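tool_call: predict_structure(chain=1)
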Amino acid sequence: MDFAGVEKVRLEPWGEGDFWLLQRTNSPEMTVHLGGPESEEKLADRHRRYLDPESGRMYRVVLAGSGESVGSVGFWAREWRGGTVWEAGWGVLPEFQGRGLAVRAARAVAEAARDAGEHRYLHAFPKEDNGPSNSVCRRAGFTLLGPVDIEYPKGHWITSHDWRVDLESPRHSIRQAV
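tool_result:
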């Protein structure tokens, strides 16, 4: 914890031994806004993509003080409205939710996307009715652009909110977001 009593997180690059985290986050409660749990085969495919730096950048979210793994966060390239942007996603294990860890992880991944360069914008597309993820976006400093229809999972259209961070804006705008 830092001086204000707020737990800090750090991002650790996704590793071969992190498959267990995909399995833990594959529960009905964790995937309710993502189309439900995936098969072991799909999880193994996802794990391989997470390990491939060409597919994006995935991280394990770790409590800075204890080193305990609390979730995952990452970003990857997505074609969006005639250009390529970064898209972000995250998940915090149920026993660690409600502590602001996802907000801190989202801020950290925005900084990582900024450092990676390549694209000006980082987007997140939580379902319109996913209150917690929409709150994470707001508190992490993303700007709400409005509702959009997105295909996720493939073949299934959902209404999501399009949240965006301008990675060319001053660094403090992400760090200071409440």
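agent: The first strand starts at residue 9 and ends at 13. Proceeding to next step.
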